[in-house]
Amino acid sequence: MKYTVITGASSGIGYEAALAFAARGKNLIVAARRTEELERLKSKVEEIDPALDVVIRTVDLSVSANVHTFYESLGEYEIETWINNAGFGNFASVGEQHLPKIEQMIHLNIEALTILSSLYVRDYASKEGTQILNISSGGGYTVVAEAVTYCATKFYVSAFTEGLDRELKGKNLPMRAKVLAPAATETEFAKRSFDVGQFEYEGRVAKFHTAQQMAGFLLDLYDNGQTVGIVNGLTYDFELKGPIYPYADRSQTQTEKES
User: Given a cut of 60, is residue 254 above it in pLDDT?
Assistant: First the structure.
């Protein structure tokens, strides 16, 4: 049996992605902090296909010590796809941002994603059909005012994932690494970013996608040979592209110098 791992699966894009992959007949390992929401997700998957296996892991990946433990707990499972969706945002000027929250955001958006990606690549890069899908943001390609630090974390996610995919291709390894970059999406993101109890997208945000739509875009990226799936910030069309960041192949550069 093969499994798809999804972090941050208790709500939003992660939750809907789990349902979308379940509809494809994929067994799931879903991870998040809220057990009750993961149990609700498991019940939804059972309605789609009761034959699917859904493994729940309750874990806070913003705590560094939990990240290795979480990965090690999955040693008995064959993992076909790894989706790093867990993350959150912050809207505040750099001089006014709440640093304990910023530290937690960096741990989750950057550190946990890097460690889990690295461990998965170490164990599965040579296996056919494997993919790693990292969730970035349109803010991973454009710096947004009052969200500079958040965007910087997502610039990291985008650059890391694009670079990883180029590295895998350069070594002729079958694993693919891809990055999804949503624009405004109707999830709990805004509530956490603004630290408010409620946020209504309708009437406050001019354009946005639903989490279900973004999960559909994620499947499009999963099926496609391109590296980047990004929402156009002006038209809100979903576009599949090759790598966007410049990339210097060190071995190729050295060869050119020697010749």
Answer: no
